[in-house]
Every structure is written in C-alpha cells, then in structure tokens.
Amino acid sequence: MRSNAFVYLSFCLAILFGCNSGDQKKAAKDGVDSTQIFSPDKVREVTGTGKVEPENGIVALAATSAGVVVKQFKSRGDSVRKGEPILQLDQVLEQSRFEQSTSQLATQRSEIEMAREAAREAEVTYRYNQEQLATARNLLQKNAETQQNVDDLEQTLKKSEIELANRQVAIRRAQQRLREIQKQGQVSKEEKNLKMLRAPEDGVILDLFPTVGSAIKQYETYADFAAKGPVVVRAEVDELFANKIKTGQKAVIRLVGRTDTLATGTIQFVSPYLKKKSLFQEQASDLEDRRVREIRVTIDQSDRLLLNTKVECIISL
C-alpha cells in the first residue's frame, strides 16, 4: 500500500512541474517575462479618486459675534453679493451703547464750545489788563501814577494770564475727551455691525445651520459657503504612479463606476510631496498604509458637475 501511495504522489508531482514548465516555455516563446507581466512604466492611463470643489474650496463661515438669531435674510442655495446680510443677531445692548455714545458726543461738543467761549473772554480780559498796565507805567514815568497801583495792575495781569492758560487747558482736555468718546462710539458701532453676519464675497450659500431663535457662539460655524468662480476636481493618485503625474496633462471626469464622461479638464496643480489619504476618509480606521499625491484639475465646462460629487479622474499620460 505504501509503495502504491508513493508512486501516485510522484506521478502527481511530475504532472504539476510539467505544466509549470510548459507555461514558462510558452511565455518565453511569446516574448513575455511571466515575472514582470505588470509594470507601471507601461501604464498609459492613471485613475485618481477625488471630488468636485470650488476653486478656493468650501469655506466654513464663522460668526463674528455671539448672540441669538433674530432675522434670516438668506437660505441655503441662495446666491449672495459681497457684504449682503445673511443673519442678524440680537443687538439691543450694542444699540444702547451706540446711542449712548452718540448722545455723549453731542454733549461733549457743547462743552468744548463753552470752554472756547470762556477762553475768548479770558483772552479779552488779559488784553485789557495788558493795556491798563502799559498805561499805568507811562503815567508812572510822568509821576502821574503811583507805584502801588502799577504793582496791583501787574498782579492782576498775571492772574488773567493764568486764567487764560487754564481756559486753554480746559479746551484741550475737552477735545481729548471728545476723541475718547468718538473712539467709544466707533467701537460700539463695530460691535453693532458684528451682529450682522454678512457674505465675505460673491458666492453661494451651500448650507445654513442656525434658525431664527437659535443661539450662536462667537467663531461658531453657521454656514458653508462657496465663492463665485470656476470649480475644480481635487483628487488623489496612488504613490505607485505619483511620479508620472505632471501639470498640463489631460483628464476625463467620470462618476465612480460609470463610463460616461461628465467633463474634461487639465491638471493645474500637482502636490510636491506624498501624504496619507485624506479624501473620503471619515474614520481613523478607514486609513490605509498607502501614500497619495494630491492634484487639482481645472474643468473645461462644469455645467454637469455638482459640488462635493465623488468622481474619478482618468489621466492620460
């Protein structure tokens, strides 16, 4: 029995090695090295996976101030111009401060005018006392005035001089106070303006998160925004073909798993380094031990492309 089993096993091994030798001979006959059937150098097309984005990316708009939404001017999908209001937050406190500063400005301007009037009166008094002293000194030289009267007039002139200087200082202080109030008013106005959340530039509101009555924290994201302009495809190419990608190469854009062409484009940017996969990775466990090279493709005509669509870029080498 053992002898028969040994004979059978030897027969099977002979058949196996014979088939393998035949395949290698056939490959050699056809001019193909069976150990190098696949070679990256012979690839004529490379596929990168990416998504459709605005040229400057999708921007998360952050609230410039905290507050409760009291009015909504725009909705998701609306086109906006730069500076157009999107949401208004409550501004009762800021409005009160602004009105208070406006009232203080009017009061301070009146005080400055009063200080100037007092200074004009002090200057008139000072000029009058100067004339009186000059007259008295002339009379003293002619023995028509007493020295005591001249001394008294000199003291009076010094007092009026000090009074004039004090009035001028009062004007400068009042003017300084006016500038402080003006700055406070500017701050109050800016704080009030921060309660109006506006579009940073022309574009489209992709998503709007708060509703009227909801509260927003400062710097909290309240909308996703796409600036007006062309769209691009940001894609990633496997490290195996990374050194074959260059700017200016043509690409065909398709939906993943489809063969029909959505658009065509040209590579405008190629990352100078390899990095970990970042697109379409939602969890840390999704990451693979592979490196990719990021590219950006400008689209010739983007009418059929929706933002954030997952696509394939077929790049011609």
TrEMBL record:
Assigned keywords, A-Z: Coiled coil
InterPro entries to which the protein is assigned, alphabetical: UPF0194_transport (IPR050465)
Keyword Coiled coil belongs to the record: yes
Compartment list: Cell envelope
Regions annotated as coiled coil: 105-191
GO cellular component, one term: cell envelope
UniProt entry tagged with the keyword Coiled coil: yes
Protein name listed in UniProt: CusB/HlyD membrane fusion family barrel-sandwich protein
